[in-house]
Amino acid sequence: MTEEKWEPKVVAFVCNWCTYTGADLAGTSRLKYPANMKMIRVMCSGGIDPVFIIKAFERGADGVLISGCHPGDCHYNAGNFHARRRWTMFHQLLEYLGIDKNRLQFSWVSASEGKKFVDVVSKVVNDVRELGPFKGYKELNSEFTAVVNGLKQEVNKAEAVNG
Amino acid sequence: MDELRNHVKEMLANGTVAAVIGYKEAGSPMRTKPVIITAPEEAILLVFNEYCLNNLAVYLTKARVKNLARVNGTIKKLGIVAKPCDVHAVIALIQESQLKREDVYIISFNCNGVVKDYGETLTGETIASKCLHCDARQPLYHDKVFGELKDLPASPDEELAKIKSFDDMTSQERFEYFKNEFDKCIKCYACRAACPMCYCTQCITDKTIPRWVESSAHGRGNFSWNLIRAFHLSARCVGCGECERACPMDIPLSLINRKMLEVAKNDFAYLSGRNLETPTLVGSFDVKDKEEFIL
Ligand code: SF4
Ligand code: SF4
Ligand code: SF4
User: Fold this and answer.
1) Residue B173: how many CB atoms within 10 A of its CB?
2) What is the CATH number of the domain that holds A84?
3) Residue A95 falls inside a structural domain
4) What is the pTM of this model?
5) Does the pLDDT value for residue A2 go beyond 70?
6) ipTM for the whole complex
7) What residue of A is the nearest CA neighbor of B166?
8) Rounded to the nearest whole angstrom, what is the distance from the C-alpha of residue B240 to the centroid of ligand 3?
9) Is the terminal CB of chain A with fewer CB neighbours within 10 Å at N or C?
10) Is B266 in the A-facing interface, judged by CB distances under 8 Å?
């Protein structure tokens, strides 16, 4: 993909009860939002393990959005309260290790906030577009592919020798 | 030292404790290693000085050590010789329900600091960096305490200065810095083995279906591993520095752990392992927790 054609890839992890329903509402209300966002529905924002976020970056995401019910509205009462504490720690850890804070964003979007959902997604996609491709993790990925390809070649060579 | 030995001897003889985890000399008076004492006459081996670097709380969650405490079907106490900072780890383990307070017998010291490395005389230069910002040189919890407080050699807190200096770097520069550090990682998991708070019977990096953290030692897997390790210890780490001391590749893990300690302190006024009455930070919540970073 050439630089001009680059489009940000944003993965959103959203909870089933609020944000996903909010996104649905945006759809049924015919509101437009950038198609750069790939949405993954989970049952509760409290169930979004930070390894999901790391995996998304590993698989080429340029940004990640996490969204759940407003505090007090959690379908499971307290899932988002627990999540909030973890996010407070996690986003500061990522920032410290050099992952720009705009690459990982959080929001509360309720089932009736179709408009807010569109605004949030547009903001995140724009922020990520401004930052450009996530070179840091992409380099890690290409290193990884190089290692794997090297190993494959070795295996092929060995197989050729051994018949 | 005699006080300690006599006390342990007595506790073992009268059956208060089933075993005591402590330190013994290792080849030189300026070096120690962990020892588990089960017979009163072995208590003579115990030492306590500025070379007692290990955080022995790591053994408390090991099944083999826990089994020692099972004597004829009843649970006896496990004794542990713990520096005041190591007591934090014991307390954190109790907070996380890995132990009961009545199952451990804490023998502690009013602490005058430890060295960075064996074989050095304790001075302002050789003192371990954690001792420079220690907030509890007297143990917060103990069943027996020995020793007298002396003044610590003065020295600037370079670790914190270094962490603050990261604020002036761009994200990319920080990413490069940590990527290069993590690149050295050989996935030996010594940091995990040495950590009293890494007691999971199956670590996330050992889970293979699905494989969340790649276990081969290449840039991407190393970055994920170090990130996840740091996150799992955020607000749980007691800052003992054992992970960094164990790391054969000299990765500055304390720079990350200390940063997260500061985050928990600033945002939640929380320090791990200081209070038996409070729940852990990540195991609880407050509806009024700050959230200005959430859209
Ligand atoms: S992460 Fe390191 S400093 Fe923190 S408790 Fe574990 S071993 Fe100690
Ligand atoms: S790194 Fe995480 S999962 Fe692994 S032992 Fe430590 S706390 Fe447990
Ligand atoms: S001790 Fe160091 S080299 Fe070994 S796994 Fe931990 S960070 Fe990597």
Assistant:
1) 12
2) 3.40.50
3) yes
4) 0.89
5) no
6) 0.89
7) A96
8) 16
9) C
10) no
